Amino acid sequence: MKNFWSTLTLNVRLGLVVGLLGLGALFIGNPSGTSGVTIDPQELARIVQTETDHVSVETLADWIIQGKADYRLIDLRSDTAFVQYHIPGAENVQLTALSGYGLLRNEKIILYSDGGIHSAQAWFLLKAREYRGVYLLLGGLEEWKEKILFPAVPANPTPDQAAAFEKRKQVSTFFGGMPLDGTRQEGEPAIAMPNPVLPAPQAAGAAPGGGPAKKKKEGC
Amino acid sequence: MIAPFYKYGLFGDFTSLIIAFLIGIGFGFFLERAGFGNARTLAAQFYFTDLRVFKVMFTAILTAMLGIFYLSWIGLLDLSLIYVSDTYLLPQIAGGLILGAGFVIGGYCPGTSAVSASTGRIDGAVYLLGMIAGLVVFAECFPLVESFYNATPMGRITLPELFQVPYGLLVFLIVIMAVGAFAGGSWVEKRMATRKGATHT
Questions:
Q1: Interface ipTM
Q2: CB contact under 8 A, A104 and B81
């Protein structure tokens, strides 16, 4: 055997080594699929306790208005609910499809569902698979409707509250919502959800749905 | 999982630039040592008399591919954090053809022209200047070509994902292809060398 090896030229030896490694790869199949799930309970508990995993609806609304594109917004509801209304820029992914969806471990991912339960469960699933930048939209779509789309003026507002409401009204109009400033009468038909397509100023910035228009400043 | 170091925050932007500089120097050094600072060597592969460039580049591809595959399998490297540039099929084919045409005409590719210029060759320096001029023209004309530049986007896609095959199978096929190409390349070289000898002398 040793004799045989010494008769080969360097090129043939290298070729044999590479061939063996290639053959090994054929049997290994998928190199990273075997890692499975790891959980650091203490770390997860700390994150939950300190609430560093939350993004408020106001913050998200600000980001969308500013045209930020450094995050991915994931809508975990059913496709019919998604088609009816979703927050601009959101991508619709079901919980069961989340692991194969092509999210990257170093991306900032914001999850939302109707309330907060599904998104919290998805948060845990992603955290367990070592996704680092996973956040919950606090209060989910319900809070988004309540605070961003249809904000209500408090009864007998103080000047401060009134000023804050003025700002909210602008945000609400931007997203096609309807501020409830007391002019609307009881018993009117329920308010229709706005079309999730954003008005003109946003369209020039990030493409809704995280389209391929954005390019990363990375690579060669 | 400890790699990629940069993505795991082991060092910051500044250190990463220093490391990139060192890797770049190393890249240039080995290109020069392989003889790629000489346009005659580079052009010889288009006449099939010297397939050195092809062999060196394929060796680099095999080394990197097997290294990434096995490091990821051992658990030292997180494959999902490796940067893969987005695929824009048609513009990238067009870009490849333009680069290839420039390679045939000028006798260099971008990296080797820098190597050649830094070893004092005039043709390499001229090529480098031409490349910079081309960059300026492209940047200034970018609005005209922008729609084509962003055409046929396929996102971040790799061959195993595209063909729905395991990574290992693709690695194996590329190894087979490379080893076959090495053997075939050596055969072609010998054949062309004798033919050239017969016709030109």
A1: 0.75
A2: yes
